[in-house]
Design goal:
The protein is mostly beta strands and 251 residues long. The protein folds into two domains: 123 residues, Immunoglobulin-like; 99 residues, Immunoglobulin-like. The chain has one helix and 16 strands. Strands 2, 3, 4, 5, 6, 7, 8, 11, 12, 13, 15 and 16 form a twelve-stranded mixed beta sheet that branches. A four-stranded mixed beta sheet has the order 1-14-10-9, with no helix packed on it. It is globular. The two termini are 23 Å apart.
Amino acid sequence: MLLLLAGCERVIDVDIKPNSTKLVIEGNITNLTGAQTVSISKTVPYSDANVYPPVSGATVLVSNVNGTYTFKETQPGQYTNSSIRGRPGQEILLKVTIDNQNYTASAIMPQQVSLDSLGISDVTLGTKTIKTVSVYYQDPVSVINSYRFVMSVNGILVKQIFTINDEITNGRPVNSLLYQTDITLKTGDRVDVEMQCIDPFVYDYWYSLSKQGGNGPNNSATPSNPITNLKGDALGYFSAHTVQKKSIVIL
């Protein structure tokens, strides 16, 4: 088994531009039945409070081989539709229109890789030992795979961004540590982990954001310029990914 720290992959150079107010689009289409979401907000200057104003009044359309779906604004800046569902291998298109300006993106949902199990590992840092969650899965040999993991402890989202690809693990069994210092794990804690199989463009977004210490809404877009698959001078991303979840209780 390979013991890896999630996020230790190739270097991506990020050109940090002077911050200014920009549109942020965060779209997620999954393979699960239920509401799919596109969130739209604006960045704020670094000196301002870390609150990202929602953007209302946008036209949001998502298309696949079955047709085009209109996303309705269900709360300020959040647009949803429960009729569309992504399927592995399928290309999905996004079009957002705000003030006669169009923003577009496309994503292909990868095949799902099974999350086998979770485990608990002890990591020693100097004289201190901390508990860390590990994820176990078998990486397929035939395709390039990229992953994102989202962790919650007792229902509280961990801020750390976890990404990994298979540049050094292609076709191998993987044991990856989700190392984080945001929440100290202790006996009795319930840890929920969501595994997302993402495409390489979305991987580049999350990885470049993690190198900046992403601190935006839901650990997403920041007031700088992580790599994006959006066209139209907006920050954020559009992702079509598979989702599976597992839980473990710390003993």
